Predict the 3D structure of the following.
Amino acid sequence: MKLSSVVVRWGLGASLVVGVGACSSSRQQVAEQETRPSESLAAYYPLAVGNRWTYRVNGRADRTVDVEVLKEEDGYFHDNQGGQISVDNFGVRDRKRYLLRGPLAEGNQWTNVVSVSSTERYRILQAGVPCDAPAGSFKHCVRVEARNRVDAQTTLVNALTFAEGVGLVRIEVSAEKSNGERLPQTWLELTSFKLQEPSR
């Protein structure tokens, strides 16, 4: 399986963002963020038809991925990359896994069994911290590490950074060898976004 397909399925295909109404600019939304982080998981993964994010791949301006929410069906928001995301009482999820679960606290862990031969282990590395991307600086972010053993020698490690009021701002994929050595594979970072203004 290509790592690029893993990234899209695990990250971007799973990265949409919640709200309804007319469009507002990304800069305005960032400026209007509250001074305290929200405990609402939906705030870190807003979902609405028409939301759009653009990511550059491996720091290259000529390699981008555009994600747009196309429709809502059966409680899931579908994007143009094949992702299907929902927010429920436990967290942000796609059809097979929770990408983010509460409480939003450093050290919180959960496990997703996605198939008979594949188990993903998630842990919140940081919560309520600032983060940066080409799209801007964000006050309240959550960084999650997901680990999935590929074989006896290799574990795929996926670091996902979510920003409050924005969604997924960074994905870093690396292969960790049995000796602990990490080999960077690919990364994506948010360069721009346009979200629907939340209804009042």
